[in-house]
Structures are given as structure tokens and as C-alpha cells.
Design brief:
single chain, 469 residues, alpha/beta, 11-stranded parallel sheet, 15 helices, 15 strands, 32% helix
Length: 469
Amino acid sequence: MVVLDRLPATVLCGIAEALCPHCTPDHQRRGHRKFWSSAGAGGPLPGPDPRLRTLAALARTCWTLNDVATRALYHEPCASVHLVRTLNEKPELCRHVTNLYIDVVSDRYNDSVGTVDEDNALLLQIAAKHAPGGLLPNPSSANEGGHTTPGAFLAADRDYFVQSLLIAMCPNIQDLFASCGYRADFPFSTPGSLPRLRHLHITHTDTELGTSIQGASQLLTAAPRLESLWGYMISWCTQSIPVLPHVRELRFVNSTFGRNVLVNLLRACPNLESFAYDAGGATSGDEQFTPRQAQRALLRYAPELKHLELHFANDEGMSELQEVDEEEEEDEEGDDNHDDDDGNNTCLNSRLTALSSLETLSVDWGCLERELKGPDDAPYLASLVPRSVTLVEYFPLVKPGWGESYLKLVQRLAEAAPALLPNLQTIRLEDPYYNAGMDEFKGPSKEEARAITEATGIEVRIPPYQTYM
């Protein structure tokens, strides 16, 4: 009979990972699930997972199993006041926290073992360890060198206080999802205090107006090895962005910010390889750069970009209302201003092909200068794609009323690929159910896509597949 605690360490770790709800295939992600559930969150919280109870039971059996189970229990814990209390009582557990997904930390967790006053007193006691001299930097008045106290921070917003404190208590975090609403601050995170943080995902906590990148500025300076920055409903930033030399991926969904913020972001990331942007429209903000402005900025500040996703179908025409900045034209384009002499200077044009290292390109009809009519528009689509690209995605590409023309366009593009796009291997199409209720538009079936693939040698893929998220 095999004794469990005498099994090899690798086997025991495999057992713990199989019981961990975050490590099983149906839950593995880099913030994807939280990305969508966070906006406007406030629904009922799920009950404790029975697998966590099993891990907790294993941890109580013997020292060998305790070590293995504890690592699985605490590598991605549920953010709460109770967690703060536990980590304070057993600081050796802090080293196990590598993933932290903080949606909202509030009384709806109902996990406190004391009164609110008792909890607050404990929080202030713990905060004193992370606030030398009893003062904290106050980003809202950073230009004046302003400071605040832990007590004032706690009184202003208890949720953000707990969130900021939790992050500071866990220096080994590698993947962080943090709420960054109207008044989010992270004053307990000092420069360089998160040396292992690789992926930072900030999100707005409301359903309108958006939030600022500068709310997470302390997290950016705390993570010297940050590689990926994601944002949900980002709409503005009035302060400079610190240099992020290791960031290779920027991804913003349902966001709305202007050309200056875009340029500052690109300047801050000199080694950028992937840029994704999904315009959120007037709900998220009141200033939006145009696809053409994005093209100019990328050509100048990210010429070695490998992956690009631009989706403007939801910007409700905001980008067309942006005034052309004459200083921008002089500073960034110089003698290349002739690329605007093509009728529509807000959309992508053939200059995009200068991104000669690009491998994947995803655009929608909001980026195009003209409405597509049928298969004769295939050369126009091809003219926007650099010859280095191996995969193009159109999500969504067309408006209602297309019928079979959509399929013919895709087929014509695949047929022309060997001559126009010699490295193209895959064309990914939009979900035919993306535009719900649009009976005029029917996406191609799997059989039709397979027929194009067999006839042209270009793989045509339709959902289900993982799109830009």
C-alpha cells in the first residue's frame, strides 16, 4: 500500500495542482476571467470551492503534505481582510502568494472575525510597518510633494487601503490584477518592492468615465521587471509615465484616450512587441486617438512591433471628431505628411506596411477608410498588411447586409495572398454571432472555411477560438 507522504515531491506537487482550482485547465488564464467580470462587478460571490477544502485537509495531515498543500492554497488567495490578518499572523505565507486578483475588497466578503473598528485598528497597525515616519505619498498631490497618513487613507476608501496593503505584504507577486477606480492609490508599494511582478492588469470599477493609468504609477515603479501591462476602461493620464524597459505587451480594452497618452505610453516602452487597443467610445471617455494617429505613433516609437490589434468599431465616431494637431504633424511626420493626402486622414492606410517586423494583424471596419462592398476590395485589404504578416484577423470586418459577399471577399484575399502576402498562413474571421440579431449577416460555416483552405492553402479559421482576449 502506497503511503501518500512518501511519494516523490513531484508527484505530491502534481496532486496539489490537480486540486487547485486556479491550476486546472478550465481556470488557467492570465487575468482573462477577471478582465470581464470586474467591470461593474457586484454580483454574488461564489461559495468556497470544495477542492480548497480538500487542500486544507491535506495541509493538516503531516508536515510533508502541509508544505505542498500550503503552496497551492496561497499562490492565488482570495483578497480579503481575513487574508491580511492571516498573512500578518503567519508572515511566512506571504512568500507563497504569486498571483493576486483583487476585484473589490469589501464587507460583502463578510469574513471578518472582529468588529469594523477592531479590523481597522489591525489594518493601521500593519500599515505602520509599511509607512516610515507615519506618512504615505499622495499621488493626487504628487506635483506638490504632498503626503497623507494611513488613517486618512483608510477613512477615504477602505477597499483601496486593503488592496494596497495586501500588495505590499506579498513581494513575490508575479501576476497582479488590481482595481484602479476614481481614487485608487498604492502608497505602500515603494520603488522596486515588487521585483518579480511580470504581468499587471488594472481595471476601472465603474461602468462609465474610465480611470487613469497614473493611479497605478506606484505599481509601475515598484515593478522594475514588468513585461506586460493590461488596462480595462483607461481614459486619461495627466502625469508622465515612468520608463518601462522590459514591457513588451500593452493591451487596452474598452478604453478611450487621446493621442498624447498613446505617445507617452509608446515612448515609455522602447522594447514593445505587442500592442492591442479596443476603443470603448463615449461611455469610457471623451478623447480618442484615431487609427491614423496610432499608425503614425507606432511607426515612430514601435517600429519593431510584432503583434498589432486595433478595434474601433465601438468608438461611435469619436475619432473622426478629433482635431488634427498641427504640432504633431510637424514633429512626427516631417516630410511624410503626404500620407494624409488620400481623402480620409483618420483611418489606416498603406503606410502601415512599414511595420516590417509585424507577424499578426487584427483590425475591424472601424479602422478602414471605406466601406467594403465585395470581393473586389481584397486588394485594398491586402494593401494594409505588411508582407511579413503570417496571421490576419478581421474582428469584426463588415457591417450587416453582406450575405455571400463576405465569403467571396475572404476567398479572393486567400487566392491573392501568395503574390501579395507571401508569408500569410492564416486568416481568422469574426464570430458570426458577434452582431446578435443582425439577420442580414451570416458568417461562413466551418465547411465553407475548410473549402477555402483546401483550395488556396491559406488556413481560414472561424470561431470558436480565443480572440484578442
